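Lab channel / #folding
Pinned by the channel admin:
"Please post every new chain as: sequence first, then the structure tokens as a reply. Keep commentary short and put observations after the output so the thread stays searchable."

First post following the new format, from NK:
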Amino acid sequence: MDRLMRAERWCLRGHLLSMAFGLAGLLWVMPHPEILEHLPAGPMMYRWSLAGGGVVYIVLGTIAVILHTYRNFGWRVLLTFLVPAIAISLSSELLGTSTGFPFGDYSYLNGLGYKIAGLVPFTIPMSWFYLGISSYLLARGGLLRSGRGMGRQLGAIAIGATLLMSWDFVLDPAMSQTAMPFWYWHTPGAFFGMPYQNFAGWFLTGAVFMAVAAGLWRGQGQVQRLTKGQLAVPIVMYLANFTFAMAMSLAEGMVVPVALGILVGALPAIVCWYFADSDPAPKSIPTDKPETLVSVGSGAPAASK
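Reply from TO:
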């Protein structure tokens, strides 16, 4: 498990650094290409970033979340979310890029990797998975700490899908309306180029695969009462990706999507994490000397005289 934890942390750090590197390229280097002349291997790094930077940060984020979910909850919990999330989101995206339902009439450009059926980059369902499970775990952590009733289960699905949809408030303008778009709308909508239908599609798609996972997670006690420690990676993942998209939207002067995303997404995500169970304090056991207590797993006395 120590190796898995180290791999998870390195992938999470790589994910965050890749986003920061990409953000610097899009917001700093692209408007001022002369900067590349003063950076070692600047042109080569910039070309690599444009060609594969988006793929790298999504793949690293996916691996980090897979390792985190497996370490904390096991293979069954991981696979019963991963498979429905990938299958349902990919189906929605293929349907959307072919027919315009449920998101609207759009197409993907280059920069996000090989396109499945020539339509949807393979990284797109991966991003649905890692942001989807992060959103849903946060919602469960905030709602299921004091009960497991059907109302709370449905509430967790609704809040999880809302958190996921709220990410798109800042993501879509950043990725489709800026200087280097990754997809475009054939029929631009009223909300900063996006049709309102897009948000309904996001909510519906997320709610469906979260509902499937909720049904498959029944009887899995490890996901019923989540702690702040178990939600550390989900909250970091959600807020980091939100911040990346927010920075790009703000750079283009799009304040309204950012404000809406913060109100409906970032703040509720933080509240869900805050109201999750606290991590249990390390237990202490007495040694053969009554006056000494040793903290389990610490290797050092908790208190001694």
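NK: The longest strand covers residues 106-108.
TO: also worth noting, Residues 74-274 form one domain.
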